[in-house]
């Protein structure tokens, strides 16, 4: 059963933020996340790859996770969009995650990230060849960071 686009992603503000995810990805990487004139909200939500984004708070909180992200992280949209993004990484690997975010801040994007993440259910998995990029508007203001990946390896339970 496919899950329709949640109401929270249909507001004008959120549609603008989702458009920025798609537009900034294409501008920075040269690769589109969404087909040319498709609705970015619907396209990002239903994409077969994980797509997540967080804001610019001191402890950034996810504001978007698509259907694939909710499945992979074993969570609901309400729980995911209330979670600080650092909690998607294991405690021991949060320092590695911060180094990644610093590199993205310096370079605009990276497309070679690998790292271990943990689902809400405690399942550990290693993401590979993830693209992480800054959400930069046309005026150069940074609105957060986003990531996408479609390769992972489930890791054995400890």
UniProtKB/TrEMBL annotation:
Species in which this protein is naturally found: Sphingomonas colocasiae
Q: Which domain of life is it from?
A: Bacteria
- The protein's name is MEKHLA domain-containing protein
Q: Where is the MEKHLA domain?
A: 19-152
């Amino acid at each position: 059963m496919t899950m329709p686009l949640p109401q929270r992603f249909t507001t004008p503000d959120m549609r603008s933020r989702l458009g920025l995810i798609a537009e900034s990805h294409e501008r920075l990487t040269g690769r589109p996340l969404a087909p040319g004139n498709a609705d970015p909200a619907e396209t990002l939500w239903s994409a077969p790859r994980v797509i997540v984004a967080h804001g610019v708070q001191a402890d950034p909180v996810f504001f978007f996770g698509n259907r694939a992200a909710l499945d992979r992280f074993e969570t609901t949209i309400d729980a995911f969009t209330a979670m600080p993004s650092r909690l998607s990484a294991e405690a021991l690997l949060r320092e590695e995650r911060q180094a990644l975010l610093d590199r993205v801040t310096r370079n605009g994007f990276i497309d070679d990230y690998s790292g271990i993440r943990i689902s809400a259910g405690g399942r550990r998995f290693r993401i590979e060849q993830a693209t992480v990029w800054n959400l930069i508007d046309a005026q150069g203001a940074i609105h957060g960071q986003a990531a996408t990946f479609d390769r992972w390896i489930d890791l054995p339970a400890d």
